[in-house]
Amino acid sequence: MRTRRQWAVAAAIGASLIAFGAVNAQDGRRTVEVTIQDFAFKVDAAPLQLQEPVRIVLHNADSVQHGFTSDVLNGLEVRVETEGVVTYGRGIKGLYVDPGTEVELLFTPIASGALKFHCDLHPRMKGELAVLTVGAA
């Protein structure tokens, strides 16, 4: 039987997981959903944590191809999965997402600050995720 304190701790952990996105039990990565719709990136996520593995799932809900490009990705080990094809390594600066498809990027942020991204096909499309140092609130 759990004590009142154990229940409070469990509730706090659950609330943290909801606030910071779902954590995949299989690989320990937090998942951030990014929807591309109406020529805009729609991100509903709390800041990423430095050195915390993350999975960004890009959904292209538009009827045209879009890019997802970030200088931050260029120096990281990145794994990209789409339609059963996996690409991984350093130097992946960006990718293209066809209409109606989904692409997953898996990586671990190594620097705090803004993880800025944009569509290289449509220059007005920009987005950003914050990367906080460990222990930041």
The low-confidence parts are: 1-21
**Rg from alpha-carbon coordinates:** 16 Å
Q: Approximately how much helix is present in the residues?
A: 10-25%
Number of helix segments? 2
Shape: globular
Mean pLDDT: 81
Oligomerization state: single chain
Number of strand elements? 12
Beta-strand residue percentage: 35-45%
Order of helices and strands: HEEEEEEHEEEEEE
- Find the structural class using helix and strand composition: mainly beta
Distance between the termini: 31 Å
Structure in words:
- The chain has 137 residues and is mainly beta.
- Helix content is 15%, strand content 44%.
- It has two helices and twelve strands, in the order H-E-E-E-E-E-E-H-E-E-E-E-E-E.
- It has helices at 4-19, 71-74, and strands at 22-23, 30-37, 40-43, 48-49, 54-60, 66-69, 78-82, 85-89, 94-97, 102-107, 113-118, 126-132.
- The strands form three sheets. Strands 1, 2, 3, 5, 7, 8 and 10 form a seven-stranded mixed beta sheet that branches.
- A hairpin with a 6-residue loop joins strand 1 and strand 2.
Features:
mainly beta; three-stranded mixed sheet; disordered N terminus
